[in-house]
Structure to design on (272 residues):
């Protein structure tokens, strides 16, 4: 496993296990499998409805808690409701702290919502805090007005939308770029791109492995999701090879600069 370091010094695995749209009934089993294979970062959210099952897998694991990095996301707006939501998430998961809590979506009052994360961070309930789906203007407002700089921005990032503009902004401000939908959420033909197929064959890897390695080599944290045991194992097995500069440039040229889902125009390329 490769690790990145957040701007508060906390180390985070470069690759984690996502649980978006994973039914609660199968979450504990899949998270437990992921941990047993070597995943040390697990991503959940209040909105996913599976925090309890993620927590159960963590608490029933033989891996010490301090070796795992557990992320959740708020689904609230405002100071009091967000503080309350963090406590409820910890209770549901049966955890004393989250390693990372992020605002899932921009809210009516981002500053007050984020202030709740700051206070929970100061109390030791969170080891790191950040945001998700925030464009550069929204992140800059937090940098300008919040007490604690965000440590992560989790945004849609994949081969067809590489978020170069936003990546440069986050890198400049020492905020880790985290990708959701690193493999395109299965909604695009990216896994069959001929250039990636050829690169994968040259390295004796799958196209998914090449894409995940491409992103992590750009200093982007990824959280692929799968319930297929073969894919869960394969997605983790990406740190025993490196793409050449030429291969990276080939993949960079596949960037189409747009989302894989039907975002409103306010969340399009120019907004970031």
């Amino acid at each position: 496993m490769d690790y990145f370091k957040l701007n508060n010094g906390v180390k985070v695995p470069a690759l984690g296990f996502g649980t978006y749209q994973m039914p609660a009934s199968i979450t504990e089993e899949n998270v437990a499998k992921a941990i047993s294979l070597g995943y040390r970062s697990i991503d959940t959210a209040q909105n996913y409805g599976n925090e309890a099952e993620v927590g159960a897998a963590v608490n029933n694991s033989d891996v010490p808690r301090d070796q795992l990095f557990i992320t959740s996301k708020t689904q609230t707006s405002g100071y009091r409701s967000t503080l309350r939501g963090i406590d409820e998430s910890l209770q549901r998961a049966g955890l004393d702290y989250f390693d990372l809590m992020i605002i899932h979506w921009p809210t009516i009052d981002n500053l007050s919502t984020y202030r709740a994360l700051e206070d929970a961070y100061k109390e030791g309930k969170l080891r790191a805090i950040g945001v998700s789906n925030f464009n550069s203007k929204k992140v800059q407002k937090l940098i300008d007005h919040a007490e604690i700089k965000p440590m992560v921005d989790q945004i849609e990032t994949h081969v067809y939308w590489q978020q170069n503009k936003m990546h440069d902004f986050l890198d400049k401000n020492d905020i880790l770029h985290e990708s959701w939908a690193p493999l395109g959420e299965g909604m695009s033909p990216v896994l069959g791109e001929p250039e990636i197929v050829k690169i994968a064959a040259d390295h004796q890897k799958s196209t998914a492995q090449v894409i995940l390695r491409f992103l992590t080599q750009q200093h982007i944290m990824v959280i692929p999701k799968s319930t297929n045991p073969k894919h869960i194992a394969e997605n983790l097995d990406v740190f025993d090879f490196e793409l050449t500069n030429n291969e990276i440039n080939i993949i960079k040229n596949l960037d189409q600069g747009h989302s894989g889902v039907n975002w409103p125009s306010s969340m399009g390329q120019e907004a970031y």
User: Anything to note?
Assistant: The chain has a mean pLDDT of 96. The beta strands are 3-5, 11-13, 17-18, 41-43, 69-74, 100-103, 129-132, 152-156, 176-180, 220-222. Residues 3-259 form a domain with the TIM Barrel fold (CATH 3.20.20.100). The two ends are 30 Å apart (CA to CA).
